[in-house]
Structures are given as C-alpha cells and as structure tokens.
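Service request form, structural biology core

Requester: graduate student, group of Dr. S.
Request type: structure prediction, single chain
Budget code: on file
Notes: please return the result as structure tokens.

Sequence provided:
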Amino acid sequence: MSNQVRTYKDLRVYQNAMETAMEIFDLTKSFPPAERYSLVDQIRRASRSVCSNIAEGWRKRRYKAAFIAKWNDAEGEASETQVWIEFSRRCKYLAEETCARLDDKYEQIISQLVLMINDADKWLIKANESQCPREPK
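Core staff response, request fulfilled:
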C-alpha cells in the first residue's frame, strides 16, 4: 500500500478524526433527551469540526500561516471535544473506559496535528511540486 497523500482523506489524522467523530455520534444517541440541544450538539459539533478544519487547512497549503491556523483550529477543536468527553463521563452518560479510550484517541489526533504543524514547510504546496510528502506516523 502506498503512503502517497493526494487529498486530506488520505491523511491518517483525518481518518482517525472521522472515525472518532462517527463513534461519538453513535455513542451520543443514547444520551438523555434533555442533553440533545446542549451536550450532544456541542460534542458532535466539536468532533466534526476537527475533520472540517483538517480539510480546510489542506486546501490552504499555499499559505503557511493559513495552513497552520486551520490546523491549530483542528487541534483546539480536538481539545474541546476532550472537555465534552469529560462532561459525559462526569454526568455518567459514558463509561469511564469509553471516555479514557476516546480521550486517548484525541491525544493521538492532537499529536499528529502538532507534528504536522511543527513541520508545516514539508506540507506546503510549492511551485512545480508534483507530489505530496509522506505523512508522519
């Protein structure tokens, strides 16, 4: 299998963020109806925003500052999602183990984002560039 990255959908960080956002979507279906317009909306919005900021940042790779800004936004949304996971645990809507696993997934996503932000020049679109670099593990 090739490690060639052609679109944001090929990025492991995007795939991890999408998978985890979909898991949160499924898990929050069991939250109490009273949380539908508060905690459920917030945690779903933040987890989805991680994915959308990655996609937006990918399209802004011609401009280092814009690329980094969108990926910083994704990092912030991942951290916000961790806060909502903590609220879900403390309200006993999700099991301790589930929350610990989700928190670990977001720590991995944040780590991937930070690695790419710190090496942003590698990801920028340059004149006459025919291919994108390999993604860090």
